[in-house]
Give the backbone structure.
Amino acid sequence: MSASVLSTDHSSSAGRWSGVFPAVTTQFHADQSLNLEATARHCEVLIESGVSGLIMGGSLGENQTMQPAEKRAVVQRAIEAAAGRVPVLTGVAEMNTQAASAFMVDCQAMGVAGFMVMPPMVYKADNRELMHWFRTLAQVTPLPWMLYNNPVGYTADVTPEMFVELADVATLTSIKESSTNPRRITEIRNLVGDRYQLFTGVDDLMLECAILGIDGWVAGSGIAFPKENQLLWELTRQGRWDEARTLYRWSQPLMKLDTHPHFVQYIKLLLQETGLGAEWVREPRLPIAGAERDQVLAIIRTALDRRPAQ
């Protein structure tokens, strides 16, 4: 890559996102139908806590289990709830390019600020196919977007070297790095400088990544304790590391709920315990039961009993 690409000032470009962008759940009724008003109420609580943006329809938002019309309804309701106070992004998690393109066009018309683009779902794309997927979707709308790299969950891995290749895609402004390897933060910085806004997407690596130098955090479990979550982020911005470590140690058992295959069920149960949502999920997921439920509830309730004073 030429030095001119690395030295480009993107500070005034659209999509120069930073801060806490929580991954918001899609709330359902017990019969698995959409509960748009509960989703909107949670968006309001998150905005009031001081977040910098909202991401709807990510993995935690159960994107892949919704019908096309439902996805659009969730995005529309979130935009209405935000009312211009914070940017609203939506996950793009489709099975084919045509569906992804149509969704992006519709969401642009609704007024989203941008997208969080996942790799192709179900099919395990190779590197050539991955790059074609991202470049093709980048041409669909002029809106900025965040690339969601999660090789643990989605098998496809966008390496730091691949981000060098993608640096010419002007609308690709941000990376949600969820490889569970904090080394990636430094590797990407060393290769492309500040070309991208770097977000961590792994809750219980947030502090480690903050020390290495990130611009934002796509928070998962923190949507259930948004004030504490926001405070933790702000402490890292201010370099108040002793206070940050104390709060991080308290929240760490809750954050680990975000790194399990049942993370959607766990975090929705956490939302229920904090009064910010319900545990209902969309099949094929089922609410957790039995010993697993008891174990998770014990983790949640122990942490909440020790919750720092507001």
